[in-house]
Design a protein that fits this description.
By secondary structure, the chain is α+β, with helices and mostly antiparallel strands. It has two domains: 132 residues, no CATH class; 75 residues, 2-Layer Sandwich (Alpha-Beta Plaits), CATH 3.30.70.260. 53% of the residues lie in helices and 16% in strands. The strands form two sheets. The chain has a four-stranded antiparallel sheet, with helices on one face. The protein has a two-stranded antiparallel sheet with strand order 1-2. The longest helix is centred in the N-terminal third of the chain and has 20 residues. It is elongated, with a radius of gyration of 27 Å. The chain starts with a helix and ends with a strand.
């Protein structure tokens, strides 16, 4: 049980550094609880095994832990704007820590220790190199500041159609100025910079467009 606390805490320290919802104590408790459930599942009913027609399947409780930990992991996942999801790594860490606890409870100490080391390598050592290895794909975005009395979204839609520009996200938000709102458009396919510059020039010449910002997608 003490070993489960140590290994769960080792993973939790990394999450605690970034002040995630599931930190040091949460990971400790998940690993400890999983180890206890596995011990109960494997050895808690040994006294009734001698009873006729009674058999024991230690994997049943372990299977429930693996599936049941999902509700706790879901609580660490946050859905932010722009379809950005945060907390998946922490949720995956909790799920893995539960597996480590089950391994300790089942007496597989070497497997639990090796898994803990690999988890720490993934969380601590690989993170600084992630951005170098994988470049996050970003879509082309156009940000506009419009005068709501001078130009409508229908007019804006017509201009995009003329340029054969398709989008999959449009966000409208008010500003502190009563007559102005912000429009964010995210395109759903790559468009040449030449076409985008022509579009920006067209938008900038329209009466009612106060500001145009173009963020090209990375390739």
């Amino acid at each position: 049980m003490f070993l489960a606390v140590i290994m769960g805490g080792a993973v939790g320290i990394d999450r605690q550094r970034y002040e995630w919802a599931a930190g040091l104590r949460t990971h400790m408790l998940v690993c400890l609880g999983s180890a206890l459930m596995m011990i109960v599942s494997a050895y808690g009913f040994a006294d009734i095994l001698s009873t006729e027609h009674v058999s024991l399947d230690p994997s049943r409780v372990a299977a429930q832990v693996v599936s049941g930990i999902g509700f706790l992991g879901a609580g660490t996942i946050l859905f932010l704007k722009h379809e950005v999801v945060k907390g998946l790594t922490t949720a995956a860490g909790l799920w893995t820590v539960a597996g480590i606890g089950l391994a300790i409870g089942g007496g597989l100490y070497l497997a639990a220790a090796f898994t803990t080391i690999l988890v720490l390598i993934i969380l601590i050592l690989i993170k600084p190199y992630k951005k170098r290895l994988i470049t996050e794909r970003r879509q082309t975005e156009i940000h506009l500041k419009l005068n709501k009395h001078a130009i409508s979204l229908t007019q804006l839609e017509s201009i995009l159609d003329q340029k054969n520009i398709l989008y999959n996200h449009l966000k409208l938000s008010n500003t502190k100025e009563d007559d102005t709102f912000n429009v964010e458009i995210r395109l759903n396919k790559s468009t040449s910079n030449k076409v985008m510059l022509e579009l920006i020039e067209t938008l900038n010449n329209l009466n009612g467009i106060k500001e145009v910002e173009f963020n090209p997608a990375n390739t």
